[in-house]
């Protein structure tokens, strides 16, 4: 078994072990002035920087570690359009005009990802075979089929699946039905993040790793970012894009989301006879439970299984045992297969399960909270954020909200545990 990835950029998660080479992102060695400064070199920051560079805007990105070090390089690699809420619910919440704008943005999010991959020739094992959402509960089939029809009514290529069809697509008899969204796909997520960084650098973007933003304050003509090791950045506008790794740079931001750990295991490349029976079409999948499991194959034929785990940082292989059990329950043929990688990363969960855009002061923009759909949503929001930062005439696709601290945030690990138990009970009863 490989060593556990507990957060060090050197620890070998599957993605760290197999990614394209890291980009050259040296620490900031001298103070500078730019038009836009971005804190955070994950998907949001990198996509925004790349799109800003295409608009001719001078931009600098800094990160406390390196591009893709956080959840952008540790997630399951599933590129899924849409949000947690169905299209009709978004229209009900935001009204016909704004609601349909949000639906269109979220529905086209995967298109943004694969278009960038194509245009910038990003090597990241991109596959667009679709996303399957299965259910183990007959009572939920109607809900899933209604979701599929809502997207179909808006032009999405979807298919409804019965028990036999879902079993054939997934290679397991554990589910009773579901649907498939053909807009979705998968990438090697760290390679994708590094590819965005490489494309941005080629367009003139300065990216500096090992450069922690320690203080953010107003200046005479914008903002000043003081870094932990000395140099400062003066910028007319600043974007904070730190998501689940947000700290105290801006008051209350870290306390406005739950930074929950998502855990993933990966088998060794499966033998041909076993591999042929599991996700033969190379779709990605995540089930309909509140405490969902998500799973896929990688380019070398491994099976990845992901889901929630302890809130604390992992301590050993036993913290992933529940995922290995779940994989064997779905696929008994994995009984003798060894697991080669185990790792985790923090995703930002918001109280309303929607991404949050904040404009807390003139010239300061904050984006975070993708609730497990960060590849597609963060990338596409980056395109819209770039347009917003480039000029005041461009509106944002989501209405900005104020930063609201989650009550008793310091106790989050305790009520997350209680919530996990409650949702587990609801899943068992459904």
UniProtKB/TrEMBL annotation:
Domain of life the protein comes from: Bacteria
UniProt xrefs under SUPFAM superfamilies: FAD/NAD(P)-binding domain
Keywords: Oxidoreductase
Database matches in Pfam families: DAO
GO molecular function, one term: oxidoreductase activity
Coiled coil: none
Signal peptide (from-to): none
An annotated GO cellular component: cytoplasm
Domain FAD dependent oxidoreductase: residue ranges: 36-387
Protein name stated in the entry: Glycine/D-amino acid oxidase
The organism of origin for this protein: Caballeronia arationis
């Amino acid at each position: 078994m490989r060593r556990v990835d507990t957060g060090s950029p050197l620890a070998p998660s599957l993605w760290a072990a197999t990614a394209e080479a890291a980009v050259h992102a040296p620490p900031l060695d001298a103070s500078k002035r730019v038009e836009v400064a971005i804190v955070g070199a994950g998907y949001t920051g990198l996509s925004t920087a790349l799109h800003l560079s295409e608009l001719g805007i001078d931009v600098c990105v800094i990160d406390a570690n390196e591009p893709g070090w956080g959840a952008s390089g540790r997630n399951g690699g599933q590129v899924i359009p849409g949000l947690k809420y169905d299209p009709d619910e978004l229209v009900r919440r935001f009204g016909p005009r704004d609601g349909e704008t949000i639906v269109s943005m979220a529905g086209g999010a995967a298109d943004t990802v694969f278009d960038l991959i194509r245009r910038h020739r990003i090597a990241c094992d991109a596959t667009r075979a679709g996303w399957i959402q299965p259910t183990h509960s007959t009572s939920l089939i109607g809900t899933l089929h209604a979701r599929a029809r809502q997207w179909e009514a808006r032009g999405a290529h979807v298919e409804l699946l019965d028990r036999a069809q879902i079993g054939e697509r997934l290679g397991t008899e554990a589910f009773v039905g579901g649907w498939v969204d053909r807009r979705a796909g998968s990438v090697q997520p760290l390679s994708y993040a590094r590819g965005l960084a490489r494309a941005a650098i080629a367009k003139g973007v300065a990216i500096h790793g090992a450069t922690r933003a320690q203080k953010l304050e107003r200046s005479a003509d914008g903002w000043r970012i003081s870094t932990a090791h000395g140099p400062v950045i003066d910028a007319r506008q600043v974007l904070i894009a730190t998501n689940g790794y947000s700290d105290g740079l801006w008051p209350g931001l870290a306390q406005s989301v739950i930074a929950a750990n998502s855990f993933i295991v990966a088998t060794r490349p499966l033998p041909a006879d076993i591999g042929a029976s599991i996700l033969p079409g190379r779709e990605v999948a995540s089930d309909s439970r509140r405490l969902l499991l998500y799973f896929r194959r990688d380019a070398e034929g491994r099976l990845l299984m992901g889901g929630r785990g302890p809130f604390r940082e992992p301590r050993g292989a036993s913290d992933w045992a529940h995922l290995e059990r779940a994989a064997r329950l779905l696929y008994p043929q994995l009984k003798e297969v060894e697991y080669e990688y185990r790792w985790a990363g923090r995703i930002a969960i918001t109280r309303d399960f929607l991404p949050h855009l904040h404009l807390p002061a003139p010239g300061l923009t904050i984006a975070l909270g993708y609730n497990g759909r960060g590849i597609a949503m963060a990338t596409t929001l980056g395109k819209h954020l770039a347009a917003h930062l480039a000029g005041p005439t461009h509106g944002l696709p989501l209405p900005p909200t104020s930063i609201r601290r989650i009550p008793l945030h310091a106790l989050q690990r305790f009520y997350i545990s209680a919530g996990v138990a409650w949702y587990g009970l609801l899943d068992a009863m459904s």
